[in-house]
Amino acid sequence: MDERKVRTRPVHLTTPVTALAYHDDEILLSGQGPYLKASLISTSETLKCIHLGGDWKVHRIVQANIQHISDSTVTRLLLVFGAKSLRIMRLVVTRSDGKSHPSAYFQHLWNVPHMKDWILDAQWLWPKSDIPGESPALRSSKGVHITVPPTSIAIGYAHNFVEVFDLPQDPFTISHQENELLQEDSLPNFQLTYSVQSEEHCTLFCGRFHNNTLEDLWFASGTVFCHALLWKVHHKGGIEAPVVNSLIGHEGILFGIRWSDDGKAVCTVSDDRTIRVWDITHGTNITHTTHFGHTARVWDCQFAGQYLISISEDASCRVWRNPLLPGSDDTDDMSDCLACWEGHEGKSAWSVAVSSHGVVATGGGDGGIHLWRLDSIVAGSSDAEQNTRDINLPDITTYYPEAVANEKEFVRDFVITSHSQSIYATNTGYILVRDDNNGAWSTLYNSPLLKNYVSLESSACGRVVVAGCLSGKLAIVSVQNEFETIVADTIGGIKIQFIFLLEGESLDDFRIVIFRANCTVGVFHLNISTATSKATCDHICDLKLPKNNKAIHAAYYSPLYNLVLLGSRDGAVMVYNLDQVVKGLSEPVTLESIVILERCHGNDSVSSILMITERGEGYEGRDRINVYTTGRDGSWAKYRFLGLPGGEVIGARSLSDDDDNSDIESDDDEGITNMPNEPDNHSNLDDREGGSTIVLQKVFRSKITKGWLEKIFIMDGELLLLGFFNKKLFVYNESKHFEIRSFSRELTAGSELFESAKLQNNFHGREVRHLRFLSGARPLTEGAPAPIIIATGGEDCRLRMFQYIPYKTKNSCTALKPLCNLKPHLGAAIRCLEWSHTEVPHSYVLFTGGAIESMRAWQVTMSIPNSYQVQAVEDHSGKVVQEHTPLFLGCFELAQCPHVSENLETRIMDLSVFRLESHPRMHFIASVYSDAAIRVWLFDEVTNTFVLAIDTSYHQKCILQVSHVRVGEGIMMLTAATDGKIAIWDLTSTLDKFLEKYDADENKVVKPHSPSYGKNKQKVQKRYAQRLDRPIAEVTAHMSGVNSLYVQNLGQDGILAVSGGDDNALAAVLIKATWNPSLRAIEAQSANVIARDDYAHGSAIQAVFMINASEIVTTSQDQMLSLWHLDRVGGNGYDAALVKLESQFVHVPDPSTMDILASEDKTKDSVIIAGIGVQIFDVDAKK
C-alpha cells in the first residue's frame, strides 16, 4: 500500500446494527459495518471494538457450543461472516477477583475473504461421536454441552448449496496476539470435504442450519418464490440433495427463517408482513399458524421458550405467544401479540438476540441497540384473569337500615386512597370505605345531598375526600377522622361535574378546584388544624374560562408561585395568578387568565398537568420552571415559564435545556397567546425583566402512542407516563424511552440486569441529507478544548445535534454523544442547514430548510454546571488530553420563514449564511429553491423575524447549490443548478439598497420567541425586497446537475470554486475578480474551468470540500472518500490538473453530505460523512 494513504483514517462509525449474539447473560456481541464489538449490558460499557478490515460488513455471528475455561479466562469460538467473506475468531473474556467488570478481546484465527457465493449461514460441526445425545431428532443445535473442539464448518450459500470444510487445526491451540488482524487468505489451508446442491436450483434470501454433525445436518432455505425448503445436507445418492419438505403459504419473498431448538418447528417471515410457524413433527402432514401485526416487511423471528420474538421494517420488535406450546389453541388470534416495543427511530430493526435471562437486544437501522425485558410482559400483563378482581358492594341493609325492598344500589363514583384502601360513593348517598386487604366495609359519611348523584375526589395523601352534589354543595370528609365533615356552599347552587383536590403549601393545606355544569370554575382554600381537629374551607375566587372553552379535565396548583393551571377538553391550557385575589371582599372575585395556550393537544383533551422547578439550572443561575402536559392525542408536551420570580426571563439569550431526546411534532393552527397581567391588580410577579408579561414557551411535544396518555408523574427521578392503548394500560419511561408495562415500583427505575435501556445511542432512522460542524465554537471553561458540535437533518424530518468527543473513537461507536432530537414539522424533510454566530457567548443561531418551503431559525445555547472542573483523560493512543466538557445544550425555535410560493411541492435546496460587520445582529440567508427562485432573507435578532431582502429567479431549472465568499467589503454569491451551470453574483449594492430601506423603518414589530406550527400562514412582506440583475459571470462546469459546491478566496490568486456533479465529474473553476471600493462593487474579469476529472468517481459526487488551498476531499454514491491534489501545472487542455492522492471505502450506505473541521492544533482535519448512518475520518495535515 502506498505510504501516502495513511493520511486518511476512519475513527468513528454509526451504521445499522446488522448482527447481535449473546456470549453470556452479561456480554453482548454486535456487528455494525466492519466493526465487531463486545459490550457489557449491565453498564453499557464497551469492552472491546475491532475493525475487521476493508469493506467488511458483519451479517451474522455464529458461536460454537463450547467454551475453553482456564482459571479466570473463558475462550469462545466465533464464525463471523458478511457477503462473501468469513472470519474465524476467538473471544477471550477474563474475570479478575479484583475487578467488578470483566475484560475482553478478540483473536483472529483464519481469514477467508473470497468465498464463491454470498454466505447465508455457517455452522460449527463435530464428529457424531463427540456430541452427546440419544437421538439426532431430539438434539438441539443450541443447548448441547460439548467438551471437544469442532473439526469442520458448514457454509450455506445464496444459490441453495452447501460446502463443508475441515479446520486446518484445533482452533484452541493457535497462538495469536490480541486483536491482530489477519490480511492473507486462509482458504488454501481449508480442505473441502463435502459439497452438495439442493435439487431445487433457486436463489435464496435466507437460510439456516440445524444440528452440529454432518450426518444430521439440515438446511432450511427461504426462496424468492415465496416458499421455504427443508432438506438434509448429507446425501449419499449423488451431488443433489432432495427437498424433504416444501413450506408453501407466504405471499411474498422470505426474508428470515429459524429452527426451534429441538428441530420440530420452523418459523418463517416474509415480504407479506406475516410470521408463520410450521409444525414439522408429522412428516408430510405439516400445519402452520399465521401471525399478523407488523405494519411493514418482517426481517426475522426467533423462538425464545414460550415466546416468539420478531423484528421488522416498521422498526418495532414484537413478542408473540409460541403457538406450539400446550394450551395455545385456546387463545384467540388477537391476543397472540403480547408486546410491541418501539424504540428505534425511522426504518427497520435489523437484528435481535435473546439472553437466557430474558433480556432481548435489538439493533436498528438507526445504529442504536436497545434492551428489553421479557419479564416485563408477565409483570405488566393486564388481560390476565388473575390480575383482575371484582368488587361487590356489601348488602345494603348492613349500612342503610331504612332501605326499602328492591331499592337499587350501585356505585356512583370511587377513589383509591392507598394500596390497601378504596372509597365508594353509592346511589343512596353513602360513602363507604373498603379495606382491600381483608375486604371489610365501613361507613365514612352519608347525606341526602349525595343521593342519586355524586362526584368524588381524594387528596394525593389519601387523608381527605371531597364529594360534590347536584345542589352545588361540597362535602369535605376526613378519611382518618382528623376533623369533622364540612359542607361548603358554592355560588348559584349549580351541579358540580368535576373536582380537583390539589396540595398546597403544607401537608394540611389544599386548594379545591371545581368545574360546574354551567362551565364555570371555582377555587376553594381548605386548611386543616390538627391541633383543634377542625378544618376551614373558604371560597376564594372563580376563574373565567374563554368563551369557546369546554369542560376542564386537568388542574394543577403551584404553591410556590400561587398559580392554578387548568387543562380543557378541547386541548387548551390556562394559567391564573391567585395573587390577584383581593381579600376581605363579600363576594369571591372572578380572575382572568394570564396565559392561554390553545390546541396544546390538537382538539383532544388535556389529561394531566405537572409543574417542576429546577433550582439554579436556568440561564445565569436562575430557576428553570418546566410545565408538562399529557393529552388524549397520545402525546406529551413540555413548556417553560419565562417571567416568574427567580425564573428565567423573557428574551433571555442563553436559555439552556438538557433534554437529550426531545421531539417537536406540530399541527396546523396551534398557537400561543400571552396575556399581560392587569396593572390595576396587585401581583408578586413584578420582578421579571422585559415588561409585565408571563410567557409559557413551548419546548417540544412527543407522541408515543396511538392511544391516549392519562397522567405524567415523577418516580425515582424518572419521568413516567401512564396511558391506554388497545384496551391495555401501560406505563412508559420517557427518561429511558421504553415501555415498562408494569405497575410494580421495582421496574420503574433501573434493573439488576441493565442500567439503561439504550446500550448504544442511535443516529437518524432515515437518510441524513445535511450536516454541519459548528465551526469557531469557544471553550465553555478555562483549560477545556472547544466543544465540537454537529447538527444533522434528514428524511426522518428530525433535527439532531451531537457532541463529537475525539478521544472516545477507540471504541468506534461511542464518540458521538446525542444532545437533542427535534422534529420541527411532520412530513417536511430537512435538506439543508447552516450555523451563524451571535454576539452573546456560547449562543448561536441555526437555520434549517427543506420540504414544503420550510425554513426555521433556532437559538442554540450551551452551558455547563458551575461546579465543573476540567479533567485529564487518555485518548485512543494513550496520550493524555483535556476532557471535552460535558455540556447542556438548549435548542429553541425562534421563528419560521414565511412561504412565498403557492406550490406546496416547492423545496428549499440549499442555504448559505453570512453576517455584515455593520449589522452584527442581522443574519443574511441566501436560499435557493426547486422552482428556480433565488432569495436572500434577513433574520433580525432584534425583531425575531424573517424579512425578504432579495427575490429573483435564474437558471430556469431546479437550483441545487448556493455558496458565498467575501471579496473585499463585498459579498459574492454562487448558485448552481441541474443545467450544470454556475452563476456568480454580486450582492453588495443590492444589500445596501435593502438595508437603507429597512433601517429607515421605525415601525418594525418585535415578536416574542415562540415556536411555529404547520405551514406559516403569515404573508411575506415584500416592501423592502430588491431584485438582482444578471450575474456578473457564468460558467458551465458539468453536463448535468451540480450536487456540491465549495468556494474559497485564494487572495491574489483569485477565487477557486470546486464542484461535483451527477455526471461523476469533479471540476475546479477559477474566478478572477476584484473589489472596487469607490463603486462598492465586485468586478469579475474571468471565470474558467481550470481542471476537470470526468471519471473522478464511479457514481454521482455528493459533496466536495477544500482542506487547504491545493487539496480537495470528495465523496460519492459509490461509497468512496477521495483526497485530491490540485496541481497548477495543468494538462489535457486545462490550466491545472486534479491528481487523486488516495481513497477510502465509506461504510455509510447512500452517502449524501459531508463537512470538515480542522483540529485546534491544525495537525489534522475531521471529515464527517452521513447518509444511512455516519462515519468520521481523520485526515492528517499535509507535511
TrEMBL record:
Biased composition (Basic and acidic residues): 679-689
Entry superkingdom: Eukaryota
A GO cellular component entry from the record: cytoplasm
Swiss-Prot/TrEMBL WD repeat ranges: 247-288
The keyword tRNA processing belongs to this UniProt entry's keyword annotation: yes
GO biological process, one term: tRNA methylation
Acidic residues: compositionally biased ranges: 657-671
Pfam families: WD40
Stretches the record annotates as Disordered: 652-689
Classification via InterPro entries: tRNA_Anticodon_Mtase-Reg (IPR051973), WD40/YVTN_repeat-like_dom_sf (IPR015943), WD40_repeat_CS (IPR019775), WD40_repeat_dom_sf (IPR036322), WD40_rpt (IPR001680)
Keyword annotations from UniProtKB, A to Z: Cytoplasm, Repeat, tRNA processing, WD repeat
Location in the cell: Cytoplasm
Family to which the UniProt record says this protein belongs: Belongs to the WD repeat WDR6 family.
Name of the protein described by the UniProt record: WD repeat-containing protein 6
Protein source organism: Entomortierella chlamydospora
Classification lineage: Eukaryota, Fungi, Fungi incertae sedis, Mucoromycota, Mortierellomycotina
